[in-house]
Amino acid sequence: MIGVHPLRLAGTVFDLLLPPVCAACGVTVEPGQAPVCGPCETRLPPVPLPRCPRCGFTRLPDLSSPERCGECEAWPEQLRRAESAFLHEPPAEALVHGLKYRGWTSLAARMGALMGPIARRLVCGPALLVPVPLSPARLRERGYNQAELLAAALARELDWPSRAVLSRGRQGRRQVRSGRADRARNVQGAFQVAASFLEEVASSRELAEFPIVLVDDVVTTGATAGACATTVEAVGLRCAGVVSFARTPPRVPGV
């Protein structure tokens, strides 16, 4: 176990000592089954219709401007599309929390598989799945990048390639509970594409032709995905959009 992050090690020990349970409701599940029970999976809340064709979020058409969407009108043009499998509400919220903060990395396989159908909405053919990166400090703290685990699971589901070619330099403040403007400022200039990957692209026409689909666990305001998409396109690559397991509903001011 040398070199294993303490959180992952603790999760492995608990998996061995305790019966597997659903991450959402705590009911016991069969050994070898993903840690989410059938009833909870059927209750995962999809993003309701009608949806914006760009950001994939629920909206009622503005009769004065049918193409306008308040959720994505401030997005950079490089972030063309977003698709999310579910709303970030119970029980989907519990799965995200378990994967992200509780070290339940075994959730990633099922969550990634559930993202498969919506990822196909972004592109007509295969794409290169690129996880949204964590900062080095956050990666050391957590021991893994949940978006990278989801991207790997999604790659297996779709038989698409997956590469962690983006890195995040500076830490910035935590995005949780930050507003739209704060989130956008927090990620400005935070990402870069690996030089080694750009060298590969320069020598491989096949690799250069793959559109990039960003992968994340949750999309909230789109600030992080927008910064990643802008970074990708600044080096001459094409970003088709972002796919996430969950989408956070907009906040109601004062609530």
Q: How would you describe this protein?
A:
With 255 residues, the chain is of the alpha/beta class. It has one domain (45-62, 76-247): Rossmann fold, CATH 3.40.50. The protein contains 10 helices and 6 strands. The strands form 2 sheets. The protein has a 4-stranded parallel beta sheet with strand order 1-6-5-2. The protein has a two-stranded antiparallel ribbon with strand order 3-4. Helix 4 crosses helix 6.
SSE blueprint and pairings:
Layout: H1 6-17, H2 38-42, E1 82-87, H3 92-101, H4 107-119, E2 128-131, H5 136-142, H6 146-158, E3 166-168, H7 180-187, E4 191-193, H8 195-203, H9 205-209, E5 212-219, H10 223-234, E6 239-247
Parallel strand pairs: 1-6, 2-5, 5-6
Antiparallel strand pairs: 3-4
Helix pairs in contact: 4-6
Name of the CATH first level: Alpha Beta
Report the structural category.
alpha/beta
Query: Which descriptor suits the 3D outline?
Result: globular
Strand content: 5-15%
Question: What is the helix content?
Answer: 25-40%
Task: Describe this protein with a few key phrases.
single chain, 255 residues, alpha/beta, Rossmann fold, four-stranded parallel beta sheet, two-stranded antiparallel ribbon, 10 helices, 6 strands, 13% strand
Short description:
This protein is an alpha/beta fold and 255 residues long. Helices cover 37% and strands 13% of the residues. Strand 5, helix 10 (223-234) and strand 6 form a beta-alpha-beta unit.
